[in-house]
Structure formats: structure tokens, C-alpha cells
Write a structure and sequence with these properties.
- By secondary structure, the protein is of the alpha+beta class.
- It has a single domain, classed as Fumarylacetoacetate hydrolase, domain 2 (Alpha-Beta Complex).
- It has five helices and 17 strands.
- Strand 1 and strand 2 form a beta hairpin.
- Keywords: Hydrolase, Metal-binding, Pyruvate.
């Protein structure tokens, strides 16, 4: 094996409730998966197929840690999401088999530099600078799927400083978890360690230093951070 000129970056690891850690491989994100959120952003839902963007595994921030306000933005937004952790390889799986590769679930925040994303959209450019940056994927400890049971209509909620900002149910998703996994597995060979952030409900908005965020989904461990 070739020597490296500097130390390789460590693999990010998310705690698992009552278990060992989950090494993160890739982070896939589903866009506009709640109709009300798509509408508040001025878009309709494409019901032919989901669409995706990515975040680097090294954008991960573990829940409970502070999030420094990122550079070159004046409009940092919260997006509360259900995160699906993949535990087995999946390629061209059908929706009825898709849940076999799910390791577990977590609460997550897809933090977004909205002004940079909007500028990229206006110029028909990629969203990377608006979505993929340090600490932009805030993930709570993962709960093993067998310990949760089916996730279908649980409430998904985000509060900022104790005030509710986002509130819906998982049943409001346009594309269900099995449908997302099945479709995504036709584009990529999913691997153990992959995460899928499944989209956000309506109510996204700006946060500023000092704001305390807390997101919940059913009985999953809440995701929490303070903007500094």
C-alpha cells in the first residue's frame, strides 16, 4: 500500500443507541419530498421520480455539539429530516425488498446556506456551496430499525428556542423510504455506511447565533444543536 504525504482523514462515526458506532460512507439527500415544502420554495413536486443531492461525509456534525455559523452566508436555514442508515449493499432492489438493507434511523438537520443555494439556482449551477459544507449534516444517534418498528406516520417536528418551526408526519412524504431506496439503488450501488436524508417538511427558516435547535421524530433520539 502506498504511503500518503499526510494523514488520511478519519472516517466519521455516528453513535448507535445501545451499540457500537456507525462509520459513515456517503450522505444522499432527497429534494422536495414534502409537497408543502416544495410549495413554500416556489416549486411543484416532480412525481415521476425523486431527485437527489449529496453531502460529504465530512460535513457531519454529531448532535449535541454547537454549530459555528458558516462563512459567506447571511441566510442559514434549518431543514429537519428523517435519516435512514443503510446496512447492506443494494443495487437495483425493488421497493418490496428495500427495507431489508435498512440498518436504522436517526433524526437529522440538513443545514443550508439558502442565499448561496438561491444564487446557484438562478445561474443554473450546482447547489454544492449551499448544501455541502462543514457541519451541514447534523445527525443524532442512530436507532436500530428492529428497535423502532415501522416508521409510517410518526410526527416530525423542529423547534427553535422552544418555538415550533416545522411540524408534519412522515406520511406526508411524497416518496416513501422503500421507494427512495429502490430508486436510489438504480443510480448507485448503495453500501453499508451510506445515509439517506429523506427531505424536509414546510416551515424552513433562518437561524442566527444563539439559537437552540431541537428536532424530534417519534421515539428516535432528538437532534440538537446551538448556533454559535
Amino acid at each position: 500500500m502506498a504511503q500518503t504525504v499526510f494523514a488520511a482523514a478519519a472516517t466519521p462515526i455516528i453513535p448507535i443507541v445501545g451499540n457500537d458506532g456507525f462509520p459513515v460512507h456517503r450522505i444522499f439527500c432527497v429534494g422536495r419530498n414534502y409537497a408543502a415544502h416544495a410549495a413554500e420554495m416556489g416549486h411543484s413536486v416532480d412525481r415521476e421520480a425523486p431527485f437527489y443531492f449529496n453531502k460529504s461525509a465530512h460535513s457531519l456534525l454529531l448532535s449535541g455539539n454547537d454549530m459555528p455559523y458558516p462563512p459567506r452566508t447571511h441566510d442559514l436555514h434549518h431543514e429537519m429530516e428523517l435519516v435512514v442508515a443503510i446496512g447492506a449493499q443494494a443495487k437495483n432492489v425493488t421497493a418490496d425488498k428495500a427495507m431489508d438493507v435498512v440498518f436504522g434511523y436517526a433524526c437529522g438537520l440538513d443545514m443550508t446556506r439558502r442565499d448561496l443555494q438561491a444564487a446557484a439556482k438562478d445561474k443554473r449551477r450546482p447547489w454544492d456551496t449551499g448544501k455541502d459544507f462543514e457541519n451541514a449534516a447534523i445527525i443524532a444517534p442512530i436507532t436500530v430499525a428492529a428497535d423502532v418498528g415501522p416508521l409510517k406516520d410518526q410526527a416530525i417536528q423542529l423547534t427553535v428556542n422552544g418555538e415550533t418551526r416545522q411540524e408534519a408526519t412522515l406520511a406526508d412524504m411524497v416518496w416513501s423510504v422503500p421507494e427512495i431506496i429502490a430508486d436510489l439503488s438504480t443510480l448507485y450501488t448503495l453500501q453499508p455506511g451510506d445515509l439517506v436524508m429523506t427531505g424536509t417538511p414546510a416551515g424552513v427558516g433562518a437561524v442566527t447565533p444563539g439559537d437552540v435547535l431541537r428536532g424530534t421524530i417519534g421515539d428516535l433520539t432528538p437532534v440538537e444543536t446551538t448556533i454559535t
